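Hi P.,

Sorry for the delay on this. The queue was packed all week, but I finally got your sequence through. Input first:
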Amino acid sequence: MSMFRLIALAGMVLWLALPARAAIEIREVTSPGGIGAWLVESHDIPFVALEIRFRGGTSLDAPDKRGAVNLMTALLEEGAGEMDARAFVRARDALAASFRFGSSSDSLSVSARMLTENRDQAVALLRQALHAPRFDADAVERVRGQVLASIRSDATDPGTIAARTFDRLAFGDHPYGSASDGTEESVAALTSDDLIAAHARTIARDRLYVAAAGDITAEDLGALLDALFDGLPETGAPLPERAEYGLGGGLTVVPFDTPQSVAVFGHEGMERDHPDFFAAYVMNEVLGAGGFESRLMKEVRGKRGLTYGVYSYLYPMDYAALVLGQVASANDRVAQAISVIRDEWVRMAAEGVTEQELEDVKTYLTGAYPLRFDGNAPIARILVGMQMEGLEPDYVNTRNDRIMAVTLEDVRRVAGELLQPDRLHFVVVGQPEGLETTN
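Then the structure:
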């Protein structure tokens, strides 16, 4: 499974699993300059967390420049304005601030943490990174080397190979069909001009989302927003077109010398704004997302001992939606694991869940297990994710009611519509016995 998928899944589960709690007050703030943000104000500790997203991410790589946005993002903290990389790090550390920059297929992310007493100086430093990154030659070569090392490592990881093969078969020439960090050849060929162009394509006000949590008032947040973002380009590159899913049912085997095969499987899924999404979410918790209590874990691991772990998950992206899963099993047993997974896909599509399964899942999702608002940083991260998903601020207080409203018939109907056993495709990386490509 690709690192991006893990990160995206973790983020999605975080905001989907929020419990009901009283008095979560989310304020919508608009700066004097017209920049919007969401705020949860708390003055318990003198610290504020800021989460920034620019929609588009690595999908905005220019043609033949795959990996440019990823490399550019990794360089945002490697010198800015009049400061080289060392000077920038010294200035950040002197302020006890933390900046993290990341990119995925759908967004470029900035996570900032700062003390109240140093907030203005930290914002001024972060502004330099966003507005005036240097892309010095020595920093570019050092970070390029790190990216290339990661690409080479991924080329020997069966899980990554399986996920990327599935993406390529499913999405072809769309950016979703290739690795966000590029190839050795594409990254080696990137120039400073390419990085400057990638910056202009991705960091712009027309795709900006912001959330803050902690020791800051709405008035002060408005001033912060203008201080940080004033002067950014109004528009960036056009956002991608919708990704057409082009993979039918079947099996693809990628030979790889390893004692254990890894399989990634799935088909088209459901958009996050679909009215049946909560029913699908509950259904998948029973099918494969519920840990040791899920059907896949019980059948594939518990009853037959074919794997240490198997799971499935809903994966709505900005321009496509999938239902995906992964399993790893010994080469001589992976065929049996795949057969059991197919059987469970068929059973769920035909029967839905039982009353006891539905009750247990609702208890889990609304009770003691869900992740909670446990600090300014998680709060800000959840809020910005909600904005990007088009959710309303009151979602955090109504989410459990929506889970509880899902009925047995809802799950049965949605399972029959969403799960498509004949479209289920497995990409197996390893030396599986008794399997060969059928697509």
